[in-house]
Amino acid sequence: MAMVCLLDFEAYAEKYLPKIAWDFFAAGADECSTRDENILAYKRIRFRPRMLRDVSMLDTRTKILGTEISFPVGIAPTGFHQLAWPDGEKSTARAAKAMGTCYIASTYSTCSLEEIAAAAPGGFRWFQLYIHRNRAVSRQLVQQAEALGFQGLVLTADLPYTGKRRNDVRNGFRLPPHMKLKNLEGAFEGDDRSEYGLPPNSLDPSVTWDDIYWLRSLTHLPIVIKGILTKEDAELAVRHGVQGIIVSNHGGRQLDGAPATIDALVEVVEAVRDRVEVYLDGGIRKGSDVLKALALGAKCVFIGRPALWGLAYKGEEGLQDVLRILRDEFRLSMALAGCASISEIGQDLVQFSKL
Amino acid sequence: MAMVCLLDFEAYAEKYLPKIAWDFFAAGADECSTRDENILAYKRIRFRPRMLRDVSMLDTRTKILGTEISFPVGIAPTGFHQLAWPDGEKSTARAAKAMGTCYIASTYSTCSLEEIAAAAPGGFRWFQLYIHRNRAVSRQLVQQAEALGFQGLVLTADLPYTGKRRNDVRNGFRLPPHMKLKNLEGAFEGDDRSEYGLPPNSLDPSVTWDDIYWLRSLTHLPIVIKGILTKEDAELAVRHGVQGIIVSNHGGRQLDGAPATIDALVEVVEAVRDRVEVYLDGGIRKGSDVLKALALGAKCVFIGRPALWGLAYKGEEGLQDVLRILRDEFRLSMALAGCASISEIGQDLVQFSKL
Amino acid sequence: MAMVCLLDFEAYAEKYLPKIAWDFFAAGADECSTRDENILAYKRIRFRPRMLRDVSMLDTRTKILGTEISFPVGIAPTGFHQLAWPDGEKSTARAAKAMGTCYIASTYSTCSLEEIAAAAPGGFRWFQLYIHRNRAVSRQLVQQAEALGFQGLVLTADLPYTGKRRNDVRNGFRLPPHMKLKNLEGAFEGDDRSEYGLPPNSLDPSVTWDDIYWLRSLTHLPIVIKGILTKEDAELAVRHGVQGIIVSNHGGRQLDGAPATIDALVEVVEAVRDRVEVYLDGGIRKGSDVLKALALGAKCVFIGRPALWGLAYKGEEGLQDVLRILRDEFRLSMALAGCASISEIGQDLVQFSKL
Amino acid sequence: MAMVCLLDFEAYAEKYLPKIAWDFFAAGADECSTRDENILAYKRIRFRPRMLRDVSMLDTRTKILGTEISFPVGIAPTGFHQLAWPDGEKSTARAAKAMGTCYIASTYSTCSLEEIAAAAPGGFRWFQLYIHRNRAVSRQLVQQAEALGFQGLVLTADLPYTGKRRNDVRNGFRLPPHMKLKNLEGAFEGDDRSEYGLPPNSLDPSVTWDDIYWLRSLTHLPIVIKGILTKEDAELAVRHGVQGIIVSNHGGRQLDGAPATIDALVEVVEAVRDRVEVYLDGGIRKGSDVLKALALGAKCVFIGRPALWGLAYKGEEGLQDVLRILRDEFRLSMALAGCASISEIGQDLVQFSKL
């Protein structure tokens, strides 16, 4: 089977992963409207490609928070990589480094931050944080991440509680016994691990904007907030001093009915007025999707499920394949749209279809 | 089979109910466009969820006409509950009381109002009225309801004649002989019971707005009008002194081509300008639908078919399951949208998709 | 099989008619977009139904060109009724008379105008004219129709040439040898009857607006023009002195890509400003479709294919069934929308869905 | 099997061509959205047909760059005609001449320009140019085309690199060994012919608008630029002195997400303001599509895949069939829309559907 586009990796993963793992990765909240809209929304955006520009030299490099990446596609934080590949997040870290891009490691990793850091020394990584009721746990993780060389802290804002994913309920999904949330080992007493390997309700639903100041007090890392979908929250984020915003609906896994991220991006970018960097995740399946997101103002995009499919295919090597395909498709799309470098990608490159 | 969402109850009911009963409950007028639009219209509404608000304490309580309910979902009036479960409306009354919400008992109940009242003493109930040609019948029912402690009178305005439901015609639907419209027993002479267990044309198609005054003269109960779909009728309702309006198209069973209730809600709420309470029924299948309706100005929603599916599943217990799922989904949706209480739900929480 | 709605008659006709006849009646031009749009366009129109109006007495009567019909649905001109039922147009004439409505007999009838007139003496009929290259043929037909008591002359304007209906080409459709275009017998010399039973190109494609004056000189009958789809042509029709306009796209059989008639109606009605009566054919399948057309300004609608399905089912009796169902559905829709008579049907009863 | 419309030829070609050849001709970039939109976009355009105009004499002739063609449909440049029919482009040239229209021969022909010219002496032909890195190759081809009597030079602007066509990648598509790109024989050294029969990256991605001046210096032929989709590029094309613009997205084979050509046409025509001629290719499947394109301002349209289907059916004769069907459908559409000649086709003949 030739792996030509990201959908080939999806088909592979669906075929070879255990159903319970596939269902967990594929899950969306409720009726999965938002999950599916993330993808469909790209199809309603049309390019306005420009011709006869010199595209013999193509440069896909960009910088996020000052660090160069080889092309504007990073790895979004997702949990439980060992469900996809035995080496788990260690493979992810290696693939991201090999491809010269950024990997956001999740609090819910099945490898520890030390293991991740050791697997790919010098790699460009951010750490994604869920704030737990036990704030000491969170503080420790943030400080550990900084100490290990992670270069950014990503606060997930859209999960005060876990969304209702019907198939996970039906399957009674929980992490297999031989996998651990390594970053949280020992953090909780007792044996109940029924909620994704943690005691129920261990996350803190009382987190507010003021907790950005608390995080600020813990670390020198730049803070990126993930899960913003409105101009109002974008403004609040800027005012509370974050360095970046990831427009995200958690892959459609939290509030079903939330807008597609590419649709929400427009509103957020307009509100932010270049004061901080804006990124996006959700629905990226082709290089041209990346180009559309950049044209609408994203500095970089992140992939979630496609990275997991790559891992499921061949671990580090499979994820590199996924990233390489996206990079090559993105580069080709740039050329066919008349852009030789990232700086030439502007808003007049796209228009929303009236349909 | 795990009962995870309301659609599971629908599938159960379709599988286990006699076809003629299923068809009757499922029926819509003509091509069922309006019935189906009731559901589809929700999918065109997008949330604008807000992040980083303290949602550790969630309060779903609200009041309708001054009475508190534990969450803003009541039981819409539907007929013939014994078709779904042997105990019929008695089970419905018990489930509604147990879950702390309002049950609107139909004129076309297969249990009498006394039986309903006795089944769940102290429960919060309204009585739904069809006005019959024989006005004495209607007067007696209204006064009986008031005497039995029903706390509101709901006048159905959209059924001067019964809509054309093709499958009911094909099936030659009529109530099985062992079931009776208990509230109307003895009200009509003769044996012809061919129209839903009643003599044909027993409803009065000459009812007009002035009959609100007549009802007013019969009872001290607040009057709620059900079946309003336009701003003009909303204005008339307010002027005629009703206390509440249920935006309803009778589940799409009357005039096919009428708008989805969530679409009509906007126009009605705007016209009413908070002078009376506005409710809605039709198409509620998930907690997020409830949240959308409240964001657009409904004080409370009512469920029709899903209640029947709950009954068909396990009677009182099944209906409690349905209500509990809706309540939990609603609460989770509130939290994920950044609302800790009903009063925080506002119109800026939603927007209509351009598609 | 219960005949509950018009689609039941369609299914019957498709099942029992010879394929070549079914295909001919069902045919649309090219890809049948316009044929199908005629129906789909109704689904995009929403009612704004009004409640609590006295609808105990319902009156569906109206007048077209001064003659009363019992409800606003007539029989559109279609050819070759013997393909559907042995008695052909004689059955059609009887059914229309029995139901108290207007029948527009086609030039391409398989019964002669005399036979049609004799089959239902005193019936309300108009005669539909195609102008042939041999103008003497047309003159004679017009004068014969007037002499036989036809009360209106309908000029079809949209068939300078016959549209391309792929299945008819594939089937090599022609009239069976035992059927004749009785009104045109002897009108043409030679044996070539390859185009719908006539010599090829017998229709005159050079007809222009001035020919309205020529028709005017031949007859005292009111002239109705059929096939108008634009405001410009509506204005020309009024200026040339016609008494009525039928908004029609020939059932989608001529120019594929022409608008649905219910969409074009709005533009035509606006241009005509009540100076002449406006009718519509195309896509009427339910009583509520009739109500929508009247709300948008049509004085009456005409049915084409549904009449043929009625004939195919049981001749005169089957067509009466079709008309009766439409009448009853229309009456019920009126009542449920709050209209007791035709004069109460206004434009505020409908709105175009944004979708 | 009767060949009634162009889709019949498509079905034939899909059935009888080797899969690898069918896939190559059918291919679109990525998800084929643009390829499919090219066709779907026509369905969103409605005619505003005019009635009672004298259409007894129909004239479909027009001129492009001063040369008369018998109807406004030419043959777009496509490669590798021997994949469809053994005689390849020689058959194409003969069919185009026989039908009195223009054939744009591709750089990637499997017959040489001499063979093409000799096959149909005196035929009206343009030559399509890809500019190669080796500019001498391109210069020679242009001068050879002019010497051989080609009357126009068409520069393809939208292929700095080849689009990603998934099936071609899966199939490992390359030209069979017995076929040659005759115009490029001897132009490249070495044996690697892996990219469509050429060495990889032989096209020059550094071509810019200034190269129009270079082409101008090589030939007296009028220059037409193909692949323009925006008003900005249309303005640049006019300013750089081209004589014509073909609005094209390369049949959806280059940048997936580019607009349908009929949608882009409106913007280009408006920008050009009649300073040069505007043509279109992409999605033409029926005569009414041609009429829509002309109504929106195209001087002429070109067909790509349908020409190949015609070749695959019966070579020269099959392509004539395709052209004849399109011509007859176009003529009939003109008549049914009330246009007797090309000059009567105006913008008020169409409107974009709101849906």
Automatic annotation (TrEMBL), chains A, B, C, D:
Oxidoreductase listed as a keyword: yes
Alphabetical list of CDD domains matching this protein: alpha_hydroxyacid_oxid_FMN
Transmembrane segments: none
Catalytic reaction annotation: 2-hydroxyoctanoate + O2 = 2-oxooctanoate + H2O2; a (2S)-2-hydroxycarboxylate + O2 = a 2-oxocarboxylate + H2O2
Positions that bind glyoxylate: R165, H250, R253
Record keywords, A-Z: Flavoprotein, FMN, Oxidoreductase
Domain FMN hydroxy acid dehydrogenase: 1-355
The protein, known as: (S)-2-hydroxy-acid oxidase
Gene from which the chain derives: HAO2
